[in-house]
Design a protein that fits this description.
312 residues, alpha/beta, 13 helices, 7 strands, binds 7,8-dihydrobiopterin, binds fe (iii) ion
């Protein structure tokens, strides 16, 4: 998940150890592309156990919730409950199918570095894993989010091409100063996208698929809006990085994303540079609304009241 924070020179807080870009200049790896060795042998039994807990929790939740491509990709990959996956093993299978690789990074990397990797079909995955006392955390992307959430979808040819195109578009958008528009597309598709399958609404976004609570909330809670995906609409819509989304955008097929891939994201975003932006909870008359959300969850958060629709 992309939790962008400016790099800061502040000392590393004692409790939440920061990684990658968030950890400041001292944490910058030697290699210019920010890659590091995964260091698979250094994972402790306790770290593998955190993976196992997270893996089993999500594996139980995702049947009937994750989209077919996710389930199919997961099945074909060397990802299991018992150990944190080895990126070299993942890359072998992934490379054969869609030409992608998984490379290890210490955490968030600078935008241009991130895009450069994607444009070359390399997915940068954090090599660290969250602490047992923060299983549901919304922090930086760790190995569970990056591998469990993202890698299965990269086995799908349409997603594989789409994310590469996003990387190329990102590099251009950055030069044009319209990165915020592009980042919203990534957020509302790759991270928090839903897809309408013939047998029902399903998850394809990694931020949802790797979250126990959001994989239920995004599909079943009455609170959020669920709106048909539209590229321009999404480019203009702000998002939340600190809580569940107030709106999810729904695609009809992965081919719909593939159709966006040849679009030159950069100049397209530039056209929209001066268009007004929408708030996360806005519903427009032009929207194809699948579910009009009650907004109850975020309202309760703002007023400090208890959210009535208890999550299972
Ligand atoms: N770095 N490791 C990592 N993972 C991300 O998802 C990521 C990143 N750097 C920048 C970034 N995301 C986003 O801010 C861009 O997609 C805009
Ligand atoms: Fe992510």
């Amino acid at each position: 998940m992309q939790r962008s924070e400016p790099a800061s020179a502040a000392p590393i807080p004692a409790i939440h150890h920061k990684h990658g870009l968030a950890a400041g200049e001292g944490a910058r790896p030697d290699r210019a592309d920010w890659t590091i060795d995964q260091g698979w042998r250094r994972y402790t039994p306790a770290e593998h156990a955190v993976w196992k807990t997270l893996f089993e929790r999500q594996t139980q939740l995702l049947p009937g919730r994750a989209c077919d491509a996710f389930v199919d990709g997961m099945k074909k990959l060397p990802i299991g409950a018992d150990r944190i996956p080895d990126f070299l093993e993942l890359s072998e299978v992934l490379d054969e199918r869609t030409g992608w690789q998984v490379v290890a990074v210490p955490g968030l990397v600078p935008d241009d570095v991130f895009f450069e990797h994607l444009a070359h079909r390399r997915f940068p995955a954090g090599n660290f894993i969250r602490k047992p006392q923060e299983l549901d955390y919304l922090g930086e992307p760790d190995v569970f989010h990056d591998v469990f959430g993202h890698v299965p979808m990269l086995m799908n040819p349409a997603i594989a091409d789409y994310i590469q195109a996003y990387g190329e578009g990102g590099l251009r958008a950055q030069k044009l100063g319209v990165l915020d528009k592009l980042a919203r597309v990534y957020w509302y598709t790759v991270e928090f996208g839903l897809i309408q399958q013939s047998d029902g609404l399903r998850i394809y976004g990694a931020g949802i698929a790797s979250s126990r609570t959001e994989s239920v909330f995004s599909l079943q809670d009455a609170s959020p809006n669920r709106i048909g995906f539209d590229l321009e609409r999404v480019m203009r819509t702000r998002y939340r990085i600190d809580d569940f989304q107030e709106s999810y955008f729904v695609i009809d097929s992965l081919a719909q994303l593939l159709a966006l891939a040849p679009i030159d994201f950069g100049p397209f975003a530039e056209c929209l540079a001066d268009a007004p932006t929408f708030q996360p909870a806005d519903v427009l008359v032009t929207d194809r609304v699948l579910t009009r959300g009650t907004g109850a969850y975020h309202l309760a958060r703002r007023t400090g009241a208890q959210h009535m629709n208890k999550l299972t």
